[in-house]
Amino acid sequence: MRNPAINDILPSEITPESRYHSRREFLRRGSLLGLIPMARSFAGERAQGQLQFKKNRQFDTDEARTPYAKATSYNNFYEFGTDKDDPARNAGILRPHPWSVPIEGEAEITGKFTLEDILKPHALEERIYRMRCVEAWSMVIPWVGFPLSDLLMRFKPTSKARFVAFTTLFDPARMPGQRRNVLQWPYVEALRMDEAMNPLALIAVGLYGRTLPNQNGAPLRLVTPWKYGFKGIKSIVSIRFSEQQPPTSWNRSAPDEYGFFANVNPAVDHPRWSQKRERRIGAGFSLFNPRIPTLPFNGYAEQVAYLYKGVDLRRFF
Question: Which domains does the chain have, with CATH numbers?
């Protein structure tokens, strides 16, 4: 007899037995959150990692937030390992301060800027976004950050700047996942300029009112909530404006599975599983929780669908 709850579990969601036992041992030894050092606040204030920000009610949802403990311990950050708990376990060695970001390419203002240079002019705000992973799980996270468009316009991109690319830190000594050929390192992601200028696109420096933890992409990460999670590049160390579409890591590694645009589209299946439904990670999350329908553009169609007018989103996925 077919058990629907069991047969609907994706292969990507099944925990290997060895990993199950290692996780139990890890939890037995101590609280996960107690072992994860918080990233240093960009202002140099370490008082519980709290940030000063205003709530932006324009970007909100009445859906239940994913608990902080889940959002900071169930992560994709392959630079620290491919299992969901690897980033929280391995990212403590990362030092997100001091930090600098070169600005390059088709812009009037280029050069290397410190983290303080990047952040100083921007007032922080909290936005609560739904986040959807290509692996058919999702979260609701209150991010703290500032509009990506505000940052990019400071550097006065020229008329040739049709795309903007972001690169993650390459540091195999501190990022053990980069010692394996899982992807071509360093990790690179990119947006079309009109996507980057959309009001939804955010540079995040924190979540839940606290400084961004290492495993979530400290000190700077991209948040584009209408796209699948792999588009949200973490620990950004360079930004380049370009005329030509840049190669991006997952698209280059598996172009039949990961498109450049990476828009959440339940009508386009991943070659190995359906994208029509998702399992929301929350306080009572388990593999047997019922799935919910996935919305086009992750529910943000009203804000972003105009960007893709006339684009075949099955071909350009």
Answer: 11-308 (3.90.420.10)
Lookup: tokens for 254? 């598996």
Q: Can you tell me whether residue 117 is helix, strand or coil?
A: helix
What's the distance, Cα to Cα, between the start and end of the chain in Å? 37
Identify the CA nearest to 91 among candidates 39, 139, 151, 53. Answer: 39
Which are the contacts of 138, defined by CB distance < 8 A and separation ≥ 6?
130, 131, 132, 278, 279, 280, 281, 294
For residue range 101-152, what is the model confidence (pLDDT) as tens digits? Answer: 999 999 999 999 999 999 999 999 999 999 999 999 999 999 999 999 999 9
What integer pLDDT is reported at residue 282 of this predicted model? 81
Element (H, E) at 146: strand 137-147
Whether the Cβ atoms of residue 305 and residue 297 lie closer than 8 Å to each other: yes
Closest CA to 125 of 67, 72, 62, 59: 59
